[in-house]
Amino acid sequence: MSTRTILPGGTLGILGGGQLGRMMALSARTLGYQVQSLDPDPACSARFVVDQCYTADFGNADEARRLARASDVVTLEIEKIPLATLNAVAQHAPMRPGAHVLEVVQNRGRQRAWLAQGGFPQGPWQQANSEAELTSTVEALGGRCFVKACEGGYDGRGQYPVKSSAEAPQAWRELGQRPVVVEAALDLEAELSVLVARSPRGEVVVYPPAYNHHEERILDWSLLPGQIPPEVSAQAVELGRAMATALSVEGLLVVELFLLKDGRLLVNELAPRPHNSFHATEVACLTSQFEQAVRAVCNLPLGSVEVVRPAAIVNLLGDLWLREGGPRFEAVLAMPGVRLHLYGKREARAGRKMGHLSAVGSTPEEALARIQAARQAMGA
Q1: Per-residue CA distances from 311 to 79, 144, 273 (Å)
Q2: Which of 33, 224, 257, 258 allows an S-S link to 192, with CB 3.0 to 4.6 Å?
Q3: Per-residue pLDDT at 15
Q4: Which residue in 308, 248, 252, 303 sits closest to 277, CA to CA?
Q5: 216 among the known binding-site residues?
Q6: What's the pLDDT tens digit per position in 144-200?
Q7: 261 annotated among ligand-binding-site residues
Q8: β-pair type (338-342, 353-360)
Q9: What is the pLDDT of residue 242?
Q10: Which residues does the annotation say bind ATP (predicted)?
């Protein structure tokens, strides 16, 4: 496995050209790197901030090889890249994170099994491979469950909540009659996430946990640092460090966590890329998650994860653009301590992430109050 350091002036390839790729590319440019991306959307968010954008499906191994041949190192901003594409890239440039990480993460069943094998805490779950199995599994797990397709889905897609086994056939049809993971509903106190960066040389840093609030299973707002007990924060940090080390991640790993009302901390899902819940690092920390991603995959010394000032973010969905009058940019830009981040997307759709607002404060409570006031001023 290559541990070569890619110094500024080199070329970074990114599989994926969405908003995460765009923001990673901007950080890479600040550090002096050339940047290329590959994305199936000819109008993807990253297109106008990279040196070269290859328009191709993620399964197009030939185009991925072209990108790799012209790159010193390749990373990703979306985990739904076929393993064959990742392996094709690795023939020509270091692929960080590697296919071994994505093989675990891409399939919820494999991910759950890997967590169980490693002894990491998680809620009751089972995999179901047929409608009959799903019905009996929901019954065995108590009726109230979340049914999730093993592959695909994000921002709440590919999931179907059920209240009893009687709803299992509908869930099976809605999720495409394919293997699913069934997770027992849990009594939640809070949803948290922790971000780990690990370099090929084995250096590891972990950001403090973020506190996350979801609406319709899409992240609505996030607070950094999260308002959680110190012992919970310490446990989250150690869980993240242990999982990134066990997976031999080269790059970023975000661990989504459930804090239960009984005090237990359980793993929800893993994401080996920048994450919506850590956008606040751009204004809260000395090193944003996007710069950290570049540092990690290029094998540079990792940056500080210190939270210099508390911050919060709120997502801006396409629904706001579809309303009469659209977003009130001028109102929010006049507010002290608030920043506007737009992703350069041409088409607004309901539920589509078009950008986010960030706000800082002297306390987490102040940052959260500012971001909520900013969203209201924006017209949301």
Answers
A1: 27, 35, 21
A2: 257
A3: 98
A4: 252
A5: no
A6: 999 999 987 665 578 999 999 999 999 999 999 999 999 999 999 999 999 999 999
A7: no
A8: antiparallel
A9: 98
A10: 108, 148, 153-159, 183-186, 191, 214, 268-269
- CB of 156 closer than 8 Å to CB of 276: no
Instruction: Quick: pLDDT tens for 357-374.
Output: 999 999 999 999 999 999
Which pair of structure tokens corresponds to residue 100? Answer: 């071994």
Q: Which helix (H) or strand (E) holds 132?
A: helix 131-140
- Rounded Cα gap, residues 210 and 250, in angstroms: 22
DSSP string across 245-310: HHTT-SEEEEEEEEEETTS-EEEEEEESS--GGGTTHHHHBSS-HHHHHHHHHTTPPPPP--BSS-
Q: At what angle do helices 230-246 and 108-118 cross, to 10 degrees?
A: 110
269 is in an annotated binding site: yes
**Is residue 79 marked as binding?**
no
Instruction: Please check whether residue 207 is in contact with residue 281, taking contact to mean a CB–CB distance below 8 angstroms.
Output: yes
Q: 191 labelled as ligand-binding?
A: yes
Q: How far apart are CA 20 and CA 66, in angstroms?
A: 22
185 assigned binding-site residue = yes
The annotation status of 189 as a binding-site residue, yes or no, is no
Where do we find the tokens 């296919």? 99
**Predicted confidence band of residue 72 (pLDDT cuts 50, 70, 90):** very high
Name the phi and psi angles at 292, rounded to 5: -60, -40
Quick one: average pLDDT of 36-61? 97
Does the pTM exceed 0.70?
A: yes
Q: Is 109 annotated as a binding residue?
A: no
The listed CATH number (3.40.640.10, 3.40.50.20, 3.40.50.1820, 3.40.50.12580) that belongs to domain 11-95: 3.40.50.20
Per the annotation, does 183 bind a ligand?
yes
**Residue 96 annotated as binding?**
no
Q: What is the DSSP letter of 379?
A: T
Quick check: 68 and 91 in contact, CB under 8 A? yes
324 is in an annotated binding site: no
29 annotated as belonging to a binding site for a ligand? no
Please provide the average confidence, as pLDDT, over all residues in the chain.
95
- Judge if the upstream peptide bond of residue 274 is cis by omega within 30 degrees of 0: no
CATH class of residue range 124-184: alpha beta
| CATH top-level class of 188-378 | alpha beta
